[in-house]
Amino acid sequence: LQVAHVPSQPTAGSESRRFTTKHSKKALKASLTLGILLGMFFVAWLPFFITNVTQAVCACVPAGFFDVLTWLGYCNSTMNPIIYPLFMRDFKRAMGKFLPCCRRSGEPRPSAISLSMRNSNSGARAATSLKNVL
């Protein structure tokens, strides 16, 4: 009496583990990116807000120090476009389509008409009439 071995059972388990591992890596990377962004936000803006409240209570903060903290917060805003492409491949690809420095050679730049048509869910008939207008 022989029992047939079903090979699909272990494969399904290993495939499920791979699926879980892949998604847990993505979740870990997303958490890391969010942690870095929030950490930088708090490091940049928390001193400003604390100083702002202190200034309202006692008026003892020098104007130059307050300006430095304000510009520290502004620098945080300039860091976001640098952080996003470093950690997010989809963001990097999207920016590469619009920035000439990041576009691959031979890859055409999308026109404003093609972008608006793609986003408006319009059909080919609307694209033809738009070309006639322009």
From TrEMBL:
Assigned keywords, A-Z: Cell membrane, Disulfide bond, G-protein coupled receptor, Membrane, Receptor, Transducer, Transmembrane, Transmembrane helix
Transmembrane segments: 27-48, 68-87
Protein's cellular compartments: Cell membrane
Organism taxonomic ancestry: Eukaryota, Metazoa, Chordata, Craniata, Vertebrata
Domain G-protein coupled receptors family 1 profile: 1-84
Nuclease recorded as keyword: no
Example GO biological process: adenylate cyclase-activating adrenergic receptor signaling pathway
Lipid bilayer topology: Multi-pass membrane protein
MF-aspect GO terms: G protein-coupled serotonin receptor activity
Protein name: 5HT6R protein
Top-level taxonomic group: Eukaryota
PROSITE patterns tied to this protein: G_PROTEIN_RECEP_F1_2
Species whose genome carries this gene: Serilophus lunatus
GO CC term (a single one): plasma membrane
Cited Pfam families: 7tm_1 (PF00001)
